[in-house]
Sequence to fold (680 residues):
Amino acid sequence: MSKKAFLSANEAAAYGVKLSRPHVVSAYPITPQTTLVEKIADFLANGEADFKYMMVESEHSAMASALGASMMGARTFTASSSQGLLYMCEMLSYVSGARFPIVMVDANRSVATPWNIFGDQRDAMAMRDSGWIMLYVESGQEALDTVIQAYKIAEDPEVMTPVMINIDGFTLTHTYDMVEIPEQEEADSFLPPYSTTNKMDMKDPKTLCMSVGPDFHTEGRFLQQKAFEAAKRKIVSVNDEYAKLTGRSYGGMIEEYRCDDAEAVLVAVGSVAGTVRVAVDEMREAGKKVGLIKLRSFRPFPKEYFESIRDKFKAVGVIDRSISFGFDGTVFSEVKSAMYGSGAKMANYIVGLGGRDIPKHQIETMFSKLLGMASGKNEAEVQFLGMRWE
Amino acid sequence: MNKPKWNKDYKAPSSWDEMFFGSSNGVGILPTPNSGFRTLHPEIDSKACIKCLMCWVFCPEGCIDKSGEHLEIDMDYCKGCGICAAECPKNCIKMIKDGDTE
Amino acid sequence: MKQIRWHGRGGNGAFTAARLLGVAASVFEGKSAQAFPSFGPERRGAPVLGFTRIADKTITDHSQVYECDCVIVLDETLCDVTNVAAGLKPDGVLVINTRKTADEAARHIGFEDPSRIVVLDATDIALELLGNPIVNTIMLGAAVGATEMVSMESVEKAIDDVMGRNLREKNKKAARAAYDKVKEAVMQ
Fold:
């Protein structure tokens, strides 16, 4: 019988890690990830779990030692945020190019300077080309469930690609609500032990993490891209399999909420999707035809889904808690690119930077603007909302 | 010595099926030897050799085999640098022009 | 949905109280609850906010709490640095740890309706029953006395669930004492 507890998303994710039976956890603390790795350490200290915990001196070392462990065939976990993620950024490509299925949590936090410990999505977005699968969760429950799913996706022989699970700093990491914790037997029945031939083996010696020159480099990268195509299928099938076991589904790569007859929709990533749900319900009560597209998988990007909705909605807005300076919000530019050829009006709302709250009324403003655009009103395509002055 | 022999039949991957995975590959492959790099190669006078192993210590390629009765040099790996001859306290290693052997 | 805001200083348990209320409502009364902190600089003594939401349906809202059914002030000096009544609903209740009367407190913070202010000297109760001036569980008991948003039985179970073994009995006693005191004052 699974048990329920009032947990923060960090604690929930820690339970997900424990249930996944890692062999090695290596981590360096950084706000707002710290309570996650502390909880994992608690499990070890009170005998609830059995694995090796490496207390390393930096995030670069955390990922390097995680890679070393994974090269031995160990199921490995690490976590970081913001400056820590950027500190380990060279190691992110090391892991993905060598095709080791490490799972990590990134507690999304803004990036210095100016220095800021609060939540936005700039850190992981800056790493979107690193070759990691990137999933975004909306709640503590989803964080727990996605950690377990992530190992199954990562370790699939057709995928063999590391997975980064993104949990919004403070709005999720330090927010408590009820989480159902599956039994260890349930998790074991879903997630078999990690087994691979891509590892150091005295009986079958290999070169690992070699260099590859111009002759063969392109072919290897093509195979990495192919693995992401396989990941698209696995993210969906693993979600469905997990839903059969626990009753909880997250839609795979995307989830549509009240989109069927919507005129204007908002694409949201992470915890803000939960607030958009509430705004959609309230505006629907008032007769407005609005909906939410929750983007769960950012890499691989659900290109085919956005192509399929080209003609479905009159206006599509994208909420971005990040911006690629010199261009638009990161998620917006990708959604717009995938929707090339669409006649829909499109808009980008840059909000929630540096931990600034995204209140419900701001989301209602976004929907009002979108509905206005749908009926011919002119609005700037990319807007910073909620600034202190014009 | 455990060093792989020059594999003259080695072929690089020629199809998707033969592609290596990620950044991993098999070991024990010497596609091209160092021998073409040399002008001179060392020859040890085994009778004069006192097995002090200075040549073995200083060889930058680690290609001197000390496991047998006499010291042997693996000519696939020797690049002809001459350090062994320079270090030998008995001067019993001579650097000979390539082309005389093989 | 009920939304509660807690004003405290870092290290004095304002967020723990927010969490205890969440545990009481969800784990022990089957409702949906959410609790989260909001801090500036992470250091002892800095003003911090805690928030609790309680609802029947699952709470997916991840924005801040702007409208409060109840505001609880653990340290009255915070009234001088921030408007503790901001966002309080027209029928909302303000619970303050102070020696002032409700009228005096209302005048001090510029609040027009003293009947919606509940005051008690929580520090006094804390020093007597806990031996230290940590008032978080006491203010939780007082808030429950003022609003009945959960039952005291659930609060006591939450204290058992969350707090360390050595702290449980005295904190339950202190919370109950505050609850009784507020109930008594309301009777008068």
